Amino acid sequence: MEVPPEKDLDAQHLPPQAPERSTELSSELEDILCDKDVPLFRRLKKAAWVELKVLFQLAAPAIGVYMVAFGMSTSTQIMSGHLGNLELAAASLGNNGIQMFAYGILMGMGSAAETLCGQAYGAQKYEMLGIYLQRSTILLTGTGLLITLVYIFTKPILRLLGQSNEIASAAALFVHGLIPQIYAYAVNFPIQKFLQAQSIVLPSAIISLTTFLLHLVMSWALVYKAGFRLLGAALVLSLSSWIIAASQFVYIVTSPRCKQAWTGFSLQAFSGLPEFLKLSAASAVMICLESWYYQILLLLAGLLHNPKLALDSLSICFLIGGWIMVISIGFNAAISVRVGNELGAGHPKSAAFSVVVANLVSFSISLVAAIVVLALRHVISYAFTEGEDVAKAVSELCPLLAISLILNGVQPVLSGVAVGCGWQAFVAYVNVGCYYVVGIPLGSLLGFYFKLDAKGIWWGMIGGALMQTIILIWVTCRTDWNKEVINYLVGGKSDETVGEVGRKVKLLV
């Protein structure tokens, strides 16, 4: 019984000890929201307490996983930087350029498994989670073969983009050491979505943290003591990624919590690949268009009349914003699971309520972070550099950073709702329009023509992000959650008896 790929949504559900417990808690939330005998305020208060417990149990470990992943790449760059300026430039180009290209594509494609596994779990079709895991791994591995060609030809690509032969050669050496990491991503991203859909997130956080500590020791030993230098740093990063992927797979195979969802390898994973690829491609486009947007803005900053100051100040602000945005990304993962699970379980009120709670919590945290950034705007840059010119430039950009933080408190969560509902293709079109038709041209106009420099480029970024956020809010507010559940049930009628579908639909209309 297979949930149709085009309607499957990813969502993380409350942390169950067993699938039955998860379903029980989900039904409890729906029952609370539907109980008209209880006053509205008491209903909302009780429902909010239930949802907040579930949401934080999902979001907190997810935030930890993303922070560890960010920390591993950052520590690799720091260790490379202690080898020399050339090594730092090479590691920065490799990590922030080539590696992020692969990361964005594979993570985006992996969110198709997020959508499908979330709905299948909510519909209690547990055996399909393992099929979707294998299917996603097959497609991501195939995509990884194509990405490998980019890694192999890193040097001529960087030379074509204007990098010096020395930097291009060093960056190519670093990137070649990251080739094994491509296939670790191809395995790891589907596994993460498989576990998240079942609200099994704490093991991933523990595995990631343990591997991070091991990563630091291995990097020190291989880079400095064994003398492998830049290549050693890249190889350790690849090895650490494989340790995380392999450890999580061992957990899946051996844990009683996964015994219903993982029933072994199956030839069924090779069926339905075209439909799965369609959703995966839409997911990849949605993610990549957003991540590349910020890289393009940095490239534009490099063309300003004082590029070093512009790049330094923007990079510091983006780094601060990136660390804070990890929190919103954790809620993105949590809400995509929640929405997918609730739609799959036929709980429209719970799905809608989860969206509201997740957005309010993420927005509140981001608002506090924005206030702190504004309060520290005159000194915050000294954590990264001692330059007074950079400090002044960062201080002037901090109000724009605060605005971006507030927007980022809502936008990633709404994107998670889109993943949970399977709207990736629609959001991809929205991203094209908002970022590339509005944001980049507006930033170029303000930065270059009106001589606003880095501020102008950032105002363009805010304009694109604001438009995207408004559109996603409008679409989410207009969503008929009863209809979303009905569409899912009707779309999955081949998996249930006609009578069962009819019974559920009748309950909703």
TrEMBL record:
Highest rank taxon of the organism: Eukaryota
Q: What is this protein called?
A: Uncharacterized protein
Q: Which organism is it from?
A: Rhododendron molle
